[in-house]
Amino acid sequence: MAQGTGSINSDYKDWEWSADAGERARLLQSPSVETVPKSGESQGNGLGATSALGAVFIVVNAALGAGLLNFPAAFSMAGGVASGIALQMCMLIFIIGGLVILAYCSQASNERTYQEVVWAVCGKVPGVLCEVAIAVYTFGTCIAFLIIIGDQEDKIIAALVMEPEEAGSSRWYTDRKFTISITAFLLILPLSIPKEIGFQKYASSLSVIGTWYVTAVIIIKYIWPDKELVPVEIPTSPSSWTAVFNAMPTICFGFQCHVSSVPVFNSMKQPEVKTWGAVVTAAMVIALFVYTGTGVCGFLTFGAGVEQDVLLSYPSNDIPVALARAFIILCVLTSYPILHFCGRAVLEGLWLRYTGVTVEEDVVRERRRRLLQTISWFLLTLLLALFIPDIGKVISVIGGLAACFIFVFPGLCLIQAKLSEIQETRAISWWAMVSYGVFMVTLGAFIFGQTTANAIFVDLTA
Length: 462
Hints:
mainly alpha
């Protein structure tokens, strides 16, 4: 890894970085971001090719995704529209703050990906924890994607074979486990085996179209509801003050774009923290409107009876909703391989660093490892998805990890970056920044602990 003069905690012996960093950096970048040299290696004045407007689009795309389907249920858990929106607004301040902190630390450490920033600024132990968290998070998200495929296929197949939804599947080829498995083996596994992800560069556009279409359908269905829809009770307050916290995993999972934000920042024509602050503020406001529109309209349509996956609440024979389901399946089919590449790249990096072998020295065994890692990852996620039919249970766990990426690691980076500054007298602003970092770490640790403990408790008592 190239060492910049402005690097923080950059003693090479502290963590013995191996030569696979470039490969993992490419894999962990957003598919919409072009790889450019580090600032210390760049030539000329242009550091990147992404404009500020383009960066807004990329960040919005990174934030919007499958978590959209769970927002109406999150509003129900939060106790209604007012508490759901208030919770989002409070968390959004710290979500934006985390994105700005990561850009600041990226410049200070001269690193270009999330995990490299944590490694350089915070040191070896937080760096390893960050990479493990990324691997677990991507693994859990892949499970959620397979569950979503099963949810949508159940409804589409029920409409095609004209079976009553209450009766369940009566044919082996319409069984949920069979449809998920055949889709995964025929479509997802072949896309996950290759080493590079260049062929996935158009997936982001497809995801954006699908996400906006789903949002539009849910809003329109609320404004002009079906005649068969029975009026439902709409909660106006949470069942208890702790119930509000149950909505936090969904919000964290939905707004988590921090892992891909660092390469987006470094791909900009003018990677400046002030400009980046405006970019992420605009992007998060757009994402807020999309998530709020979906959450509010879906919740007001079905009330407390809304499903964890809101599209499951609509009848199978609704054509606009069926098209939304098809869009979601296509989005997930292209998103699973990208998330798998990210997780596999982190695991590969951890293995190479542990063994002290570089990619160039281990080409033959790299192919074998890649096949073993891909097949093991694929089979484990598929097996868990077949026996965990509720997406809410998965999001409750990985949402806590998302809180670590949003709050804990940026807070640690800010604290360490300020502590590394050499100052004779420390101003009030210095203490304010350190205090803000401590608060972010505390908040993130609380969300992670509370949501994880609650998820385990619910599973044990189910």
